[in-house]
């Protein structure tokens, strides 16, 4: 990248595919089974696995795994539907596990 200044990015920890922008973080206070995770308004260069209903701490959701398009690693999940009214803001947004993404351009 040399001296170029661009937006602060997060990349896949395995293949360095750019998957999210720092500016798109909504919350850094998410918790997954394996530790801390970040909620993003949207992510890119990923594809979604099949949808499944899942009972999480905050209620019932329809979620799908989020995979890196390059190496196919599962990086987190997307909330396709939230059944609790108070959790509707998560719909269409994605969570990436902190240990599966690395900072670029910081
Ligand atoms: Zn990857």
UniProtKB/TrEMBL annotation:
Query: PROSITE patterns of this UniProt entry?
Result: YIPPEE (PS51792)
What's in the keyword line of the UniProt record? Metal-binding, Zinc
Source species of the chain: Olea europaea subsp. europaea
Q: Where is the Yippee domain?
A: 8-105
Q: What is this protein called?
A: Protein yippee-like
**One Pfam family this sequence matches:** Yippee-Mis18
Member of which family?
Belongs to the yippee family.
Does the keyword field hold Metal-binding?
A: yes
Checking InterPro entries in the record gives: Yippee, Yippee/Mis18/Cereblon, Yippee_fam
| UniProt KW Zinc keyword | yes
Q: List the GO molecular function terms.
A: metal ion binding
């Amino acid at each position: 990248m040399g001296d170029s200044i661009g937006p602060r990015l997060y990349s896949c920890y395995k293949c360095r595919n750019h998957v999210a922008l720092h500016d798109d973080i909504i919350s850094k206070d998410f918790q997954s089974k394996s530790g801390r995770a970040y909620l993003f308004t949207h992510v890119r260069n990923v594809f979604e696995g099949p949808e499944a209903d899942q009972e999480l701490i905050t209620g019932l959701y329809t979620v799908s795994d989020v995979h890196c398009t390059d190496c196919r690693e599962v990086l987190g999940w997307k909330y396709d539907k939230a059944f609790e009214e108070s959790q509707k803001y998560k719909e269409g947004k994605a969570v990436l596990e902190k240990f599966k993404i690395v900072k670029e351009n910081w």
